[in-house]
Specification:
By secondary structure, the chain is mainly alpha-helical. It has one domain. The radius of gyration is 18 Å and the shape is elongated. It starts with a helix and ends with a helix.
Length: 175
């Protein structure tokens, strides 16, 4: 529990970058959508997805490098717990490659005034897929299944996010 709590604290700091960008870019996306600037909307989507991808790689690499020092800050009082936390965070770090796309995808549809799609992405990401994977993956992978559960849930959500982006592009003219 202590290891998972530590990873969740650090996770929130890392994903704050995606949350901040997504919330901050939403008014710009909404403005260009409302103004009918379809070329600019397409450009914003392309640049945002690129930026999220680059940040995801950077955050994953940063998490890999900082796993041991961060684990020691929170649970350094117990070397076995620190080692488990470090190992878990290195596996968990894979989720940073993916979760930014889902966070941005949800905010993107909010900016386009499609709360149903936005809520669907968020609900699947934070509840449905995470619960399903946390309950099943540890059976197959043991404790590593707990650390990888969020990455798998994010990957499942990414399939849905991409599906929405592809299937709604003509409706919102960002293709």
């Amino acid at each position: 529990m202590a290891a998972y709590g530590t990873i969740m604290y650090v996770n929130f700091i890392f994903i704050a970058i995606f949350l901040g960008y997504s919330i901050g870019s939403a008014p710009i996306i909404g403005y260009h959508y409302g103004a009918g600037n379809h070329g600019e909307l397409k450009n914003l989507l392309r640049m945002s997805l690129s930026m999220v991808g680059v940040c995801g790689v950077g955050l994953m690499l940063l998490a890999e490098v900082l796993a041991a020092p961060l684990a020691n800050i929170f649970v350094g009082y117990d070397s076995a717990l620190a080692a488990m936390t470090c190992h878990g965070f290195r596996l968990y770090a894979i989720s940073f490659l993916i979760n930014g796309f889902n966070i941005f995808g949800s905010a993107f549809f909010t900016a386009l005034s499609n709360g149903i799609v936005s809520a669907t992405i968020s609900f699947l990401r934070t509840l449905v897929f995470q619960v399903a994977v946390v309950l099943t993956l540890p059976i197959v992978l043991g404790i590593d299944g707990i650390w990888l559960a969020v990455a798998v849930a994010e990957a499942l959500t990414l399939v849905i996010t991409v599906w929405f982006l592809v299937n709604r592009k003509k409706q919102y003219h960002y293709a």
